[in-house]
Amino acid sequence: MILKESIEHFYAQGSSLRDKAGAQQAVHELRFFLNNGEVRAAFPSKGHDELGGWAVNEWVKKGILLGFRVGELTEIHGHELMHFFDKNVFPLRKLTVSHDVRLVPGGSAVRDGAYLGRSVIIMPPSYVNIGAYVDEGTMLDSLVLVGSCAQIGKHVHVSTGARIGGVLEPVQALPVIVEDDVFIGGNTGVFEGTVVKRRAVIAAGVTLTRSTPVYDLVRQTILKATTQVPLIIPEGAVVVPGTRPLTSPYAHQHQLGVATPVIVKYRDAQTDAATAIEEALR
Ligand SMILES: CC(C)(COP(=O)(O)OP(=O)(O)OC[C@H]1O[C@@H](n2cnc3c(N)ncnc32)[C@H](O)[C@@H]1OP(=O)(O)O)[C@@H](O)C(=O)NCCC(=O)NCCS
């Protein structure tokens, strides 16, 4: 049975699954192909313009979910070259499997089953979850989360404190996509299957979700997700944090507004200069 079929087979069995060892082996093989980038949770697809040109590989997400179902809690030993130093009065708590706590290793950790292209830089502490795809030359600065199945392109800069959300369920949902040469500013959040097209710039502090309308000042349109289609940030858009007033009488009385990202311009030489990355750091 080929891997896709075997994962579909185990996944469909739900809680009545008996062949746990077989299912674990399928997850193991899936990790192998995710590691080398041969299979991906989502892939560029010309037939899916409405999804920003991307399609989801449902069976891959099912395989990862299967892993959570059939995986067993196990003790993970630290690397022999990793040592930590702290005040002797404050030792680490000794936890064992019997505590039934999942203590995931690392100040920075890359889960097996995540693809990392060549020359990727990961500054600690950062975390790259299973199913993620981080293409070559991309920089993940400190405190970056690359959530499960997120697809990050080539030469993307993900600044400190940025969270790229994971999208495992539902399995048919597109994960977050960040295409080549995008700049993700500090303390940003890109969640719920948002697609950020090539060369876009997400300014510091912007949060993008399925519920976030984005106002495009240049093209004078409002970008929104629907139940079928994710929020798609166009190629080269420069998105900054903005606000808009709320209009109900109560909101008006209290001068309330909500945060809303605004596309103030499309990328130009000034933006390139403002987002230029120090090559010496690479
Ligand atoms: C988006 C960014 C790159 C600026 O892009 P830019 O092309 O240089 O933008 P400009 O300076 O031409 O500004 C265009 C307009 O947007 C506004 N603007 C730009 N950045 C803004 C921001 N972050 N918040 C609010 N408004 C902003 C400007 O005031 C200007 O408005 P105006 O025309 O009414 O004066 C910059 O704001 C940014 O976020 N940099 C990333 C910082 C960061 O996270 N660094 C992490 C590594 S330490």
CATH architecture of the largest domain: 3 Solenoid
Proportion in β-strands: 15-25%
Order of helices and strands: HHEEHEEEEEEEEEEEEEEEEEEEEHEH
The helix count comes to 5
- How much helix is in the residues? 10-25%
| CA distance, first residue to last residue | 43 Å
What key attributes describe this structure?
binds coenzyme A, Tetrahydrodipicolinate-N-succinyltransferase, Chain A, domain 1, 5 helices, 282 residues, UDP N-Acetylglucosamine Acyltransferase, domain 1
What does this structure look like?
- This protein is an alpha/beta fold.
- The protein has 2 domains: 3-70, Tetrahydrodipicolinate-N-succinyltransferase, Chain A, domain 1 (Orthogonal Bundle), CATH 1.10.166; 107-271, Hexapeptide repeat proteins (UDP N-Acetylglucosamine Acyltransferase, domain 1, 3 Solenoid).
- Helices cover 18% and strands 23% of the residues.
- It has 5 helices and 23 strands.
- The protein has helices at 3-12, 20-35, 58-70, 249-253, 269-274; strands at 42-44, 54-56, 109-110, 115-116, 121-122, 127-128, 133-134, 139-140, 145-146, 151-152, 157-158, 163-164, 177-178, 183-184, 189-190, 195-196, 201-202, 207-208, 214-216, 221-223, 232-233, 237-245, 257-266.
- The strands form 4 sheets. It has a 9-stranded mixed β-sheet, with no helix packed on it.
- Strand 19 and strand 20 form a beta hairpin.
- Coenzyme A (COA) is lined by residues 159, 185-186, 201, 203-204, 238, 240-241, 264-265, 270-271, 274-275.
- Coenzyme A binds at residues 159, 185-186, 201, 203-204, 238, 240-241, 264-265, 270-271, 274-275.
